[in-house]
Amino acid sequence: DGGITQSPKYLFRKEGQNVTLSCEQNLNHDAMYWYRQDPGQGLRLIYYSQIVNDFQKGDIAEGYSVSREKKESFPLTVTSAQKNPTAFYLCASSITRTVGGYTFGSGTRLTVV
Amino acid sequence: AQSVTQPDIHITVSEGASLELRCNYSYGATPYLFWYVQSPGQGLQLLLKYFSGDTLVQGIKGFEAEFKRSQSSFNLRKPSVHWSDAAEYFCAVGGGNTGTASKLTFGTGTRLQVTL
Asked: Which of residues 66-105 of A touch B (CB under 8 A)?
């Protein structure tokens, strides 16, 4: 079955370390997105990509980086510059030619220890 | 800029009772509207969506929503709530430009608790 896979489900990081969250989709979707979710704040867009080798900053891109070397993959790196990285991270994908809504992964919970 | 307001942070209903979750949006053109549901520690699942046409849209799990342009609202309803409906619900609005990424803006969510 087609879908989006995020790994790992839980991740612990020491302060000052970079960490990379994986997101893979086999839906043949063109666009992919990363959202951060904090209690009471809904989902906030970090980065998005419409096509391979291209991506744009969202509303809260500072302290994060992404790459889009393959259509299926859109990894997110949380750098040491991110001041408050503990959160639930959600990856999503969509078709760009129609507004059909997103398909979401099951998320990665990152905790800084 | 587009925005979504979900005025109710937390709602409690009895099993079998009717449900209405409120959503108000701000968007400069014809909006594309969505409702998603999220179980704890999981991703979001699409319940229903509105693009155009009939303003009453049917979704999965017995949910429906009504688009009211004059009130900038897209409220989610269910006639009879089941205990399994307890979750967090998100309303989202997006643009209708084809050929570009359909960035969605999400509300802050409404947590639904169902009492037996």
From this structure: 88, 90, 92, 94, 96-105
